[in-house]
């Protein structure tokens, strides 16, 4: 039974999802230093290019090799510009489930890229990888992320009370932790029929041999 994700490139009308590469270091670091990313994720701040390089060359390959997840760069098809990241984590190969999250760069928001990338990934997971469940968790006040979950067909399963750490700016310009709720969403194969996001090209799955 498959216990790791393959190296993969997924194409949509506007995007290519592929493994992160060292050329992505500057753009990845810039994206992770954005205020919204800092507020809703646990990435260290400031996020240095050294941290970005370690993520690309050490953390992401180790997670994939161990079978726990997969990190994909989201790039524009025409410009090849990095516009986001889709992450799969806490993968359970027996249950055939994984947790998905997504980050869109501040220079690419408002284009519908998050839903397009998330839906393409879900279609690949259900079709090629034969997964049966994708789970998303969004902070209670992160309405943008919740809108993406709804747009791709996710079902709201309930609330994990006080289970999320978000971050807010302090008066001195730093960050402090605040507790909030997680909203749990699920996506099953039958849920994505009729989803609003751009579907993946059924022939758009390409093996990517040079992961490392």
UniProtKB/TrEMBL annotation:
Domain N-acetyltransferase: 15-172
PROSITE patterns tied to this protein: GNAT
Keywords: Transferase
Single GO term (MF): protein N-terminal-serine acetyltransferase activity
Any Gene Ontology CC annotation: cytoplasm
Signal peptide coordinates: none
Domain of life of the native organism: Bacteria
Name recorded for this polypeptide: Acetyltransferase
Phylogenetic placement of the source organism: Bacteria, Bacillati, Actinomycetota, Actinomycetes, Kitasatosporales
